[in-house]
## 1
Amino acid sequence: MSEPAPQLGGRLCICVGAGGVGKTTVAAALARARADRGQRVVVVTIDPAPRLAQALGLEELSGEPRRVPTGAGELWAMRLDPKRTLDELIAGLAADEGVRERALSNRIYRELSAAVAGSQEFSAVAKLYELDRDGGFDSIVLDTPPSRNALDFLDAPARLMRFFDGRALRLLIAQGGLAGRASAPFLGVLGRLTGAGVLREIAAFFTAIGGMVEGLGARAAAVEKLLRDPATTFVVVASPRRAVVEETIAFARELRAAKLTLAALVVNRVHPAGQPAPPQAALAELLGERLAELVHASVGERDARATADAAGLMRLRESFMGLATVAIPELEGELEDLAGLERLALYLEPRPGSSSVDSPSVAQ
Ligand SMILES: Nc1ncnc2c1ncn2[C@@H]1O[C@H](COP(=O)(O)OP(=O)(O)OP(=O)(O)O)[C@@H](O)[C@H]1O
Ligand SMILES: [Mg+2]
């Protein structure tokens, strides 16, 4: 009897990679694979395609994971809502209901938090922390926005600190004590920009948020620690396209330089080599010259694409020697439903005896 394939990635799994390579789909399929092993797993997605969102029951943004009806295990899914994630974080740190209300409704907070929440990397990592802390899940799979830069993740906790505790805030706090003096340069600019009431709002902001700065600092430190924990692993998703290959190599180099744990490489949408075309003369007899030429041209194109993809795959394999690598072919048909995810899952974690996999390849 064959051993079950090893799980791809650690207990906490962050799917990263270039734009459009299949991060969201692979994250959902990885989660499905883990659920099919009997785990209680949650996948946090970012901007899933409408059909995938529907398949996972995630038409709306939500702060809470929802259960997806699948066979074995428990699959849970949610869509990241960056603004809400930050609001909940603040709400959780507020000493009481009044402070919470005042903080969340404060105009300065709303302006600043919208800017910070614009960073999906930050919210994603903060959500990972929360789910790990109180979700009771066996594993968590995190989808991420397209990133060119691994530092977007590493920076995320520091950005949280800078938001509330950075130099700009210290400056504001220092000047906030002089709230009456609109001539102070920083406040003067704010005052001119956003109206006279802004000074009162700033003072209120500090009153409300000031008591949370320490708690936020502690949270940022905890989030950063979790990112660096060996249980938190990065699964790099790529495609064999040349530009993506080079971007992926650079990205992974950064991850490694930052001492983050790289668990696996998924090379998605590899065009396989097909059957050779019959000789053109034989085809011409059957189809006529014109059609035979067209068939040959299209087979030629397909072969060229397959050759280029094989070269991209090889370059990736050579650059990631020693790393678990999975190649997924360009698949036909619907992928953005639960059955489609299962098809993909079989490439990510083939099950013994499964026959629907034509060429899964896992190389250590
Ligand atoms: N192996 C595959 N074969 C065919 N189509 C695929 C495959 N994997 C993913 N796709 C399709 O590619 C498209 C992009 O996938 P997905 O949305 O997961 O990419 P992404 O990396 O999350 O994109 P973004 O960077 O915009 O978030 C989707 O339509 C998906 O169904
Ligand atoms: Mg995506």
Note: Confidence is low (pLDDT under 50) at residues 176-189, 355-364.
## 2
Amino acid sequence: MIADDMRMKDHPILGEISKGRPVEFTFDGKTLTGYEDEPIAVALKAAGLMVHRYTSKHRKPRGIFCAIGRCTDCVMIVDGRPNVRTCVTPLREGMDVRTQYGVEAK
Ligand code: FES
């Protein structure tokens, strides 16, 4: 079942919001379901998950802030690649999404 109670269904300017097909992905090893092509951050938020990463120096939690790919607060490790801005990265079937701790280089 997809948690979509929080998703916008109709926008005053954009109109009705279309969704992709339901797809499964994992978040820190737990299987979740979202809609294909929606931002990863949206699927996580709909599932009630707010923390995407922890800062490197003080280990403070961070999540969605700008939601337009500018601030890096939403970066996570996606399919083994660190520093992925999940607010602007489309969800795909089988993605492996993980919480990021600090700044990871690859
Ligand atoms: S929330 Fe700012 S880059 Fe994603």
Note: The CA atoms of residues 29 and 88 lie 22 Å apart.
